[in-house]
Design goal:
eight-stranded parallel barrel, alpha/beta, single chain
Length: 272
């Protein structure tokens, strides 16, 4: 059966140490590490803690911004991504999630060229370190400064054209639960997926990325997971919750209930 991970974004107000210890105490064996939390705690010390408790790292979140939307140069963004890859290797993460940055004032073709220039440098580093990089597209209503990849076919084309074994994709159900094209794309998409993030919402994706508890919204999680299973996806499902409602809730209860909910979904969709 596929594995379950929890992103540290879910327990936004906790420290890295509390995340790791509490996740482990709740029977989890995999964590999605938020880069800022790890930096605040100390990268070497964090790697030691993860080893000590036997916690796998599903992904390191995040690097990118190659289009200059935040004022950095392309080379600065590339250098940062390469540093993130080194951190990902240190903590033995399965992948590093990448966001291209918004299109800004660029044409799509120019933004695409900037991404390709970034990948020219990042992929050799990924190969040397043995860490996959996962491009993450978003629904256009939520993408804002994060990415210009706002269509699954766009993102799939980028990965297909590169045809590099360590260039993967990340899929977040929050963004694609209402996309009717998703199911027809799965035969091509699943072989490229490094991770699937699980998110739910009561309305539609928005720039605030407001999410609700899994199963409380309108994202068809069971049918999506069943379809992913049918097409051979057997990697990690990462619980990624965020937003005001999540932050004010009892974090331990959210953690426990979310894990139980996903375990039930996986049992029903995967043969054990």
């Amino acid at each position: 059966m596929a594995a379950i991970s929890v992103s540290e974004v879910t327990t936004y107000l906790w420290s890295f140490e509390k995340d790791v210890q509490t996740y482990a105490n709740n029977g989890l064996s995999s964590i999605g590490v938020w880069r800022q939390k790890l930096t605040d705690y100390g990268e070497e010390k964090g790697a030691e803690l993860l080893t000590e408790v036997g916690m796998n790292v599903s992904h390191l979140y995040f690097a990118g911004g190659f289009t200059g939307y935040d004022g950095r140069s392309l080379q600065d963004a590339i250098d940062d991504a390469q540093q993130a890859l080194e951190v990902a290797a240190l903590i033995q993460a399965d992948c590093l999630t990448l966001y291209t940055g918004s299109r800004g004032g660029h044409t799509y073709n120019h933004a695409h060229r900037l991404l390709q220039l970034a990948l020219d440098q990042i992929l050799p580093s990924a190969e040397q370190l043995g860490v996959a990089v996962a491009l993450e597209p978003m629904d256009a209503r939520a993408a804002t400064d994060w990415t210009f990849l706002t269509d699954l076919e766009q993102a799939l084309e980028v990965v297909d054209r590169r045809s590099h074994p360590l260039l993967k994709m990340a899929l977040d159900t929050y963004h694609w639960g209402g996309d009717e094209k998703l199911y027809s794309l799965l035969p091509d998409l699943v072989p490229h997926l490094a991770i699937v993030h699980l998110g739910d919402c009561t309305f539609t994706p928005s720039r605030d990325h407001e999410r609700c508890l899994l199963g409380a919204g309108n994202v068809p999680l069971q049918s999506m997971i069943a379809a992913l299973s049918e097409h051979g996806y057997d990697a990690t499902y990462d619980i990624r919750l965020m937003g005001e409602d999540i932050e004010v809730a009892d974090a331990e209860l959210v953690l426990r209930d979310s894990c139980q909910y996903v375990e039930q979904l996986l049992r029903s969709c995967y043969s054990v």
